[in-house]
Amino acid sequence: MFNSLLGAKARVMNAPGTTVLLERGSYRYGDETWNLVDTPGTYSLLPLSPDEEVASQAAMGTDGQPQPDLIVAALDATNIARSLYFLAMVLELGRPTVVALTMNDLARRNNVGLDPAELSATLGGVPVVEVDGRTGKGASTLMETIAASFHGTPMPRGLHAIDTHSVDVASWVEDNADARFEWAAHVLEHLNLESRARITRSDRIDRVLLNPVFGILAFLAVMFIVFQATTWLAGPMQDWIDGSVREWCEAGINTVFSWFGPNATDSWFHGLIVDGILDGCITVLTFLPPMGIMFIMLSLLEDSGYLARAAFVMDKAMRAMHLDGRAFLPIVIGFGCNLPALAATRTLPDSRQRVLVGMLVPFSSCTARLSVYLVLAYAFFRDQAGLVVFLMYVCSVLLILGVGILLRQVKFRDLQSEPFAMSLPPYQVPRLVTLVRSVLVKLWDFIKGASSIIITMIAFMWLLQSIPATANAGSFGHVDDVHQSVYGVVADTVAPVFAPAGFDDWHASAALMTGFVAKEVVVGSLGQSYAINSGNEDEQQQGEGTLGEAIRHSFDESSGGHGRAAAVAFLLFTLAYTPCLATVAELKRQFGRKIAWQTVGLGLVTAYILAVLAFQTLRWVL
């Protein structure tokens, strides 16, 4: 409904002093501009969570929030009984109020459709407008009704207006509860819905999808399809962007530089443009296919009504961390890509849950880390490579559970497990136009929020690789050996930190540094550094001809002959530390700078502890 009024013009922002998401926007009607604020959904003005508190403050105009000139209360026609008590509280605020009746088309199919004029008369003259949020039908009538109701709406008989500045909310809610219930019962009796109700198609489907056994199996099947669709469809597109698009862009840049002379393409500025800025832009573009596909799949699940069922089915599994079932979906999505998983945390109604799940999502082993798992698994455990990769995903699940329980005990002590109740929407076919618009808006938000950080950091990595650190390393922009650049020196400086984990080698530390930008470049970084340092024929004949052999040789050397234990430690470090720079940017955009860097620090500390413990234990076994 909100998007029907504003199109794609809404702005997502946090409520002041909170991490609760609000949407703001404006539209023109007649000669005036109307400003709208969309609050989190709630069924009561007595707040029990930060989300409900923000919604209550916005409706009542308390705690620094501006007084609303008019309130639009959205009522779901398929479950009108649940909304009437809340509507009574809104009407008692004494503000002009318009009821937006949604989902009435589905209610008619179930023989419980409502006549807006009859409902308005039953409510004592409160304006009621039927709105279809998917098609936008009724939006213009709603705008007209808002303008006409701006100066006041009648108070239904049985309800009494309050002074929001002086009232104690808890006392008000309790003292007048009986009157509200009586009023709601009177409205329902007049509408006579129970006699018309019948078993719906959604009810029949839910008998299977909400079954404790078949429901979980169905959810796992759906998530497998989502995950496979993301990887299968996005992979070729990412390869095309990283291959063909990169080649076309480089060719175009080279053509432009050739206009300035035959040596222009050898300049450091050309290196900055191609290996710094262009590489950053290509990295951003390669994230768009998996994010776009995941956003499409999520929107399909949400708009169809299945997402609410999945949350209900997985509720018990999340109770160990005092989370409810809705928190499971972002974590599962994280096994495909952490970026859309972080965006999916916006579906959680409680801001504390949203932050906790956001801090756990980076521990979901995304597909970008799979390339690292495969290379090291084949290098050290060729006959058991598949088992090793599988165990990495098992470790990811155990890590999420362990860190989640730890965070709940340390940082989220006030996060208590509460009964999980939610309204299950009827199943429906998603509308294509709404779906595409929603996905494009989300992708554009990512590009605006994360691209500048990613491009800047990749350009900074190029700068470090282009500055010679020794007299014989070459000139700026033309370093012959990356090991002799500032980047290589920094990697050499950092390497001893990993001695307790068994891989105090500059190749490994350099790969982990580039992996902070994107895990996709870890294997490329290893290949580049080993190729530079093992390029002569004698070394290749001694077993340095392949990347796997080079990694085995250096890990064996750095670990004192315990290369397999060091490989496991490296894999665990890769699993646990920051997935990529884009994830940090998305964390900052969703939760703020403080939470973003706390999550980065948590990942680094956890990764280091795991790597050290793994090596110090496994070196006696492997």
TrEMBL record:
One of its GO terms (cellular component) is plasma membrane. Mg(2+) binds at residues 3-4, 7. SUPFAM superfamilies: P-loop containing nucleoside triphosphate hydrolases (SSF52540). It is found in: Cell inner membrane; Cell membrane. One of its GO terms (molecular function) is GTP binding. It is a multi-pass membrane protein. GTP binds at residues 38-41. Keywords: Cell membrane, GTP-binding, Ion transport, Iron, Iron transport, Magnesium, Membrane, Metal-binding, Nucleotide-binding, Transmembrane, Transmembrane helix, Transport. Pfam families: FeoB_C, FeoB_N, Gate. It comes from the Bacteria. Residues 1-152 form the FeoB-type G domain. InterPro entries: Fe2_transport_prot-B, Fe2_transport_prot_B_C, FeoB_GTPase, G_FEOB_dom, Gate_dom, P-loop_NTPase. The keyword Iron applies. The chain crosses the membrane at residues 208-227, 326-344, 387-407, 446-464, 565-584, 596-618. Probable transporter of a GTP-driven Fe(2+) uptake system. Belongs to the TRAFAC class TrmE-Era-EngA-EngB-Septin-like GTPase superfamily. FeoB GTPase (TC 9.A.8) family. This is Ferrous iron transport protein B. It comes from Bifidobacterium gallicum DSM 20093 = LMG 11596. The gene is feoB.
